[in-house]
Fold ABC transporter permease.
Amino acid sequence: MSTYSDASGIIAPLPKVRRATGFGAVAPALAFVGIFFIVPVAILLLRSVLEPVPGLGNYAQLIGSATYLKIFANTFIVSGLVTVISLLIGFPVAWALAIMPGRLTSVIFAILLLSMWTNLLARTYAWMVLLQRTGLINKMLMGMGLIDKPLALVNNLTGVTIGMTYIMLPFIILPLYGVIKKIDPSILQAAALCGANRWQCLTRVLLPLATPGMAAGALMVFVMSLGYFVTPSLLGGTANMMLAELIAQFVQSLVNWGMGGAAALVLLVVTLSLYAVQLRFLGNQNPGGR
């Protein structure tokens, strides 16, 4: 038992400090989330059914308008393409990082982290310079004789997909690297000894074991892409608007909080549904096969 000595020299035991347990331990965090997240979101969603008149008119207008449906289609198509392309690029990179020497891995990680820490607006403007008709990419393609005239890579969904894929890559490489690094190399060696070729080792051993990391990274990238604003607004333009831009226009330009809240609720429901699906099918899987 710990003791202390007071001014009179009497030695006495230290008083026991009670630690909060149960609900008391998480009450401050719950209060913070409730005040700064749940309450504002609830108010916004209430306005979606109360303004300008009570009812579901805002949702009917969203679903019944071909313009708004096109914006929803743009959002889901671009988010899906960004997720698939990020997976196709990110998996080989994560696998290479997992088997590289430690010093080289540190250098690659430093580059990835530096790209994440660079200002998002600066990175998007850099892609605007690279993708424009007189930009470096078009000049290189024309110089190599691959194209005769500049490609339209900005102010369309192609530019949005390219820019967002670049930005999202670290968010899929990092979780994939963590999962692949935990896979026991002896599992792949055992598969090879049993007669599996490289393709079978990849498709029947490595990919199934890395599925939790792929699912976590894909969900993160898809959800972030659904709500992205800066890159689509700069590289896509008003003719190729996405859902986050639509919400911003409703709130900032049109001051239509009802429609903005309705669009935000659709985005929130889709996000929560995707998370529920992941928990349902992949929540109990053990990454790395351990």
